[in-house]
Amino acid sequence: MDPAVPARRKRPSVLHRLTGAFRKPDGGRAAPAEWAAFPLIDTAGEVVAGGDLELRVGITAGTVPDVTAGPRGAAAPGEPFELDVQVVAEGFEAPDGWRVRLRVDETSPYPWAVLRLVALPLDSQRPQNPGEPPERGGRSGPGDARAPHPPPDREAARAVVRRIQAVYSVRGQVIGCGAQAVAVLDSPGLLGRDAVPAPVTGTPVRPFPPGGFADITVVITHGDRPGRLWWSYLSPHFVTPDRPEVCDLGTRAPAFGRDLLGQVAAGTGHAGAGLPPRSAAGRRLAPKVPAGFRELLEAVAARISPRPPRILLLSEDPYVPWELAALERPIDPSLPASLDCQAVVGRWSLGGHRPELPPPPVIRGEAAGLRDSLAALHGTLAAYGEPSELIGLTVPGGTGGLLWIGGSEPVSRVVAGQRLEGAPFVLLAGEAAADLAPAFLVAGAGGVAAPLWPVGVEAARELALELHRRCMAGEAPADVLRSLRCAGSAAALAYRFSGHPSAVLTPPHSTA
Hints:
- The protein is an alpha/beta fold.
- The protein contains eleven helices and 22 strands.
- Helix 2 runs antiparallel to helix 3.
């Protein structure tokens, strides 16, 4: 029996009765502690290239880093469950596999396992500066673990910093992630300079809430070189490969995304006809999509037919609009070939300790509190000289809000510093930057609909009214946007949804 979990007794023990005499009366029995966990990624801070690295991976109690597994006073989960831990670590090999399954129950509320990694030789090309974090595209991510101190410049080519990431899931649904940085050295003579491991960063690991699910979850993380992304897959329908696939954009992700969307915006004339330039962008994106994803999508679509697959993109990068990618073999040939027409797609950001995982399955649809938060944000933006406008909407069954925002570089940083209570739904219009929707998620939004290229206020208002009306009738925002895209709505073709693909809006005055 784990000492952290008290044994069950039919009646109080003698010790319990004695110590209970000194407790203050509380008027009733204390509520049991809620189970909560944080990623456990415990390893040495440095390793010589070619050498073995012992990695202890699992979960630890609480919602902050702690390498002490099963600390005293830890709570047990309400129901036992199987927890899968997927490890992603560029520059390492895992001879025994990249994924472990752990049982979480009363006797072992915070389990862990040991993986053996092998550090690959240092790249012959220019290595990443050990003091420079991997490409972030202007946002923080779960790999923002503090990097070890870089060696002197003359030895910079003899060491690199590599990330070890862990993604936690239950039945194919991601519930947390974490990362740690490790220095890889080319000589044993360099050992001892960064022996203290870097702290683990990431989100708490929480039980998956009832309601939403995704047929496929794609975890997209930055590689060690600009433009390199790693794709990992999870699904409740199939056992997916534990080795991630590489995607090479050929240039930095922000530049690739801006160039792609700039061509679409120029061709649409600010959300005009929309489809031809959008299709051209989709064909350009298609070869960048790893083959493993296309194969998994086809297999899942065949299994769950006739409904469309629900896909959740968990991405460190907000710039590349994978939603536009054209499918060579569409699931439904009668619809546009883009991924966000062939499937119901939602996107969520991987970043630091916010936004947390999993994405909420319920988003607040009543915007009364949101209007107050956005009004405060409007005042903050005005102080920075940034243009914004909050447009109130009245729809059958409730109210909504549409935020027109300039979207210049400082705006995302200002938004990320705000706090939106209750996981509200945010609709954006104007020239929203690609990292603005993730900034709202960091601030606490439960879902964000934002344009990929400029959409006029009136077109956005009409879209917002229709979206709110149908969502208040019970449809999910991701479903509504897909339906409108397939129907040829020029405004809907410009929008992508950040949130869980199954998330629904609560009706006004709901207690959900």
